[in-house]
Amino acid sequence: MNQQVPIEGRGDIEGRRREREEAARNDAEPPAVQQRVENNNQPQWRLFSCIEAVLLNGRAHPENVSVNDYLRRNLLDDIDLDQRLLRASMFAFVQRCEEYINDVNALNRIFATTEYQVYKVFATAYPLLFREGILNLQRWQQADEVVKAGLQVNIRGQRDGGRLWIIVTNMLNDALDVALERAAQTAASAVEIKGVYDSIYDAKWSYVMSGYRREPLGMKVFNGKPQRIWTEAEVDITPDPANLDARVPERPNGLEIFVLTSEKGWPYDRFASRDVNIRKNNFKHVYIRREIMRVWYIIQRGLQTWWVEKTARRTPIHIVIGTPGIGKSYGVGSFLLHSLLHFNDGMLDVVAYFVGKIAYLIYNKKPGEEGRVERYKVPEDAVDAIAALVSKKKKGHIIVDIGKRLLTPPDELCHLSWGITVLTSPDTAHYEEWAKDTGGRRIIINCDDVRDMKAFVAWKKLCVLSEEVPRDKTRQQLKEELESEWKIVEERIDMVGPLPRFVFSAPDYDERLESVRKEARQLDSDNGKKYDKIISKSKGWQNDKVTHKLVKIVRVSSGTVNVESYRCRSLSVNIWNMLICTLFGILIVEMTSKEIIMSDESVGANAFERLALLSLLFPRVFKVIANNLKYLRRGREIADRRSILNDMAPQQLRLIGQKALPAAQQRPIERCEHMVLYLPATGNEPVVDGFFFVEGRLRRNRDGTAPPTTPNIAVLLQVTKSERHPTTTDKVQKFRENIASYFSDWNTFSGNMAWEMIYINSVNGGTITHRQLCGGPPDRDRGEDGGPLGPQTFWESIDQFQVTLKETMQAELIQAYRRESGMRDAPALMGLAGRRRAREEVVEGRGDVAMDDVEGGEDA
């Protein structure tokens, strides 16, 4: 076996042959490769450039190059090698080629090629550098003498190791010099923005307190910092998935939000760089709510363990995930920046902020040094500047605001020793691949709750900084204006969801509402199925353009410490209704297509069973159900009673909308509404699955006359597959307590209320034929002295009815579905004006509204 070692520069012995080889190789290589080699004459190294790229000097990785390709490219294909060796990679070949080739001349020809020499250096040195964690030029710069001495010993221990060590160190040091020069040039290209640092650091504070009954909306605005800000325990509310929709107690009055005002704006707004007054005024204020404070507490804890206590094993990296439009960039990003500058008495030297195609470096003030903000129009230049700061042992933190113009965090950031916070939507394409290398904790941020947004509406009108409030306005005028403004915002929230980006601006709201309707109309049988699962609360975020306009995420516990997850919910009741109606349309088409193998009875019953009470939102379906009710007599009764639904005129049998009952942290509904389907937020509401109220004046005697007293009627609904559905006094009492807490005007509205229960039996189950009983001890108080009824007496007062899907009504049901698929005039698809019109028609007893007369109609 030949052990001859090539002499450095041996390829130049036959100079003319070397020139021919180089020319032939260039001709054989694709233009892209040629361009890359040419560019290597003037390398554009950066501090984050990989050691791998430096050692390969622009060539493909040897693992991706076969021996056969190498020989052909270097005009060495006349060398006779085994086929298996020809298929091997150059990474393996350069380490053992002398074991396979005995021809000295052939070996010398191979050793003389530049490509072989580059791969030999790489295969020898890179594994040793990798083992020491030296993956980029900055790590090479930071490697101490002990590490480099160890590398020198290991590389010199290889054959021809002395020469290899010189080559490797020269290549890395030359590249590092270029990178440092580039970093210096980059720093010089930064543009300082005057006055911005002080505006951020000294941002003005104000806050909103609730509990002032005589003030507009019960709220009052104060200047300065709140005397007390919510504790971490107060804001860290993360339910288990099973309790996600459970109703929690109303939070007490007190601090609602606080507001930071920077006269120069914030990074999200590019510091009002366009200098438009309207833009500047809109974007210089950011309001901070409990969820944002929770994010800061988590990040602050990571900073403390890394920079102060020095107990963390890795840099604090966090990925803040929230529904698009809730203010991650505007609120979270701005507050994080302000808080980072003040962290531990200004401990951090620099905060970097990447947004769109711009990056800012905010240099904190230090003794003898003023704070400043520098703007980089090329984010890569900012990365180089950060690398230079890290090499100088500066402390800092990086905020990356993901958006349309910045889809993922810069890869090079993961090699730094600074913490990173990424602000992103739930679309995993923005962060998942990046996070595989960096790790990081996910922080799920919920949407604003109604009280947050109500407080901001109050702040805008009442704050002393606002120029919108003339001094000559009376308190009553101000109160009326503010209540009117809040009512408008509240209606917008009901329609498009709790998204500050869209509910505080009329043009943005109108555009969003139209966009929501458009996206809902475009759902079909293929993409609609995933929303069916979202409605049933069993599906996660879908990375498409439709999801973020229809769905929000809600934080839940994953069961693992410091690991958060989320579930999807519709953004608003209106959107939920739109999805329901769209899914019904899809369902009807699917069921109709199955008629060749299914009877009308099966088609109608299956459709109703799948979405149960929501079918009642369709007037024609509601009428079919009402017309097929059967009374369940009490023990001694010999005659049937009539349901209020039987007393109503056909045109009055219309639910005008659907509302979810208050869920976690939500206030009671201000007033009960007639003919609105109320559905519990939890899946385990005792006694009922839903209910609605009917005006007592619609009650009629058998002869058609009105009774002397007309209390409101509550119609309770329960879907069941069983032939029995008894309850208990405990459940009945819990239901009564719940329903009283759902509505602010319950005591007034429910006076002398009459009650009905309708059991809806599904197609594949048993049929209820007898009155359902309430188990438990007898009541001590039967309400005879004017006091409240006990649960047993209350249950006995309820008239019970039943309807089953196994009777002749099923053919009527499928016909109703068919008509609905063509008409689509359920209240769910109407705008607010359309819903008001429908309510008036129910009250006045007018006939069905033609589609052209209903706002939204087919295009809703």
Automatic annotation (TrEMBL):
Domain Retrotransposon hot spot protein N-terminal: 197-311
GO biological process: mRNA export from nucleus; mRNA transcription by RNA polymerase II
Pfam families the UniProt entry points to: DUF7578 (PF24466), RHS_N (PF20445), RHSP (PF07999)
Residue ranges occupied by any DUF7578 domain in the UniProt entry: 62-121
Domain of life assignment: Eukaryota
Domain named Retrotransposon hot spot protein,C-terminal: residues: 319-632
Basic and acidic residues: bias regions: 9-28
Chain positions covered by the region annotation Disordered: 1-34
GO cellular component: cytoplasm; nucleus
Protein name: Retrotransposon hot spot (RHS) protein, putative
Lineage, opening ranks: Eukaryota, Discoba, Euglenozoa, Kinetoplastea, Metakinetoplastina
Gene that encodes the chain: 3B10.190
